[in-house]
Amino acid sequence: MATINSVLGPLDTANLGFTLMHEHILVASAGVPQDYPELLESKYMDRIVDGLNKAKGGGINTVVDATTIDLGRDVNIVAEASRRTGVNIIACTGWWLDIPRFLIGVSPDQFAQVFIRDIKKGIAGTDIKAGLLKGASDMAGVTPAEGVILRALARAHHQTNVPIMLHSYSPGQVGRQQLAILKEEGVDLKRVKMDHSNDTTDVEYLTWILEQGCYLGLDRYPGQTTSSQARTKTMKALIDAGYKDRLCPSHDWSLARVEAEGSPLGSQEEREERNPHGYLYVKNVVFAQLREMGVSEEIVNSLCVNGPRNFFEGV
Ligand SMILES: [Zn+2]
What we know:
Strand order of the largest sheet: 10-9-8-7-6-5-4-3-11
Bound molecules: zinc ion
Order of helices and strands: EEEHHEHEHEHEHEHEHEEHHH
Number of helices: 11
Low-confidence stretches: none
Helix content: 40-55%
Number of strands: 11
């Protein structure tokens, strides 16, 4: 048992329940929800509340909002959404891929200080505290600026004991570079979750990550580059190999975002067509796939419970 920060205050890990470990309540860009809310979908709050109510009705208890400052984090919106729906939401601090040029030269210790403030005191002048640290690297591997953030995450982790989630590019095995830096900083890798790991079907690579002690975010569903079925087959292989309690299935799905006609992510209607289940895709579709593949009811029902709880408890 451990106590972690939810956006509405302390939360006992015993009460996490069914937890989605990588989602987005509202995704935009730094400052947009505060300064240019008219760029967001109209009625974005209704959409958020509706999505969370549906999730709750389907048995989802907790959602990790993987939205950092550069993804347009607004903790007031997130806290209101949690208050109105009763879904526990855990906010994160750290940085995604959009590191502006004016921050080049800021040291790991400087970044660590502000991340620690987000965890210990509160985010953006509120008393809403972060419960996770997040970093990111993609196709280009770990860039120098991302390396600074990684070291900052490690140092903030050492001061706060809050775990680390990493956006990664699994087809390029970028996790190997990310973990090398965290190891240099002395992080126990069982406090790290490697996300977007189901963008690859390379079980050998994923097993290597797990063997470092990490948790795996199998958190792109339905996903775009690999079929949902192939993602679930990979999950089944990892379950069969004995890693069921270290897996974190989720969607990386945003309930609301910027209203952009020309968005490469497609229109809202196209997104809903691709995933009419929202935050219930894993429960409705992926769990059915696993049952069909012969995974026992007991294991299926433990999947979004044990992994998340173990990760937060640091076991
Ligand atoms: Zn994400």
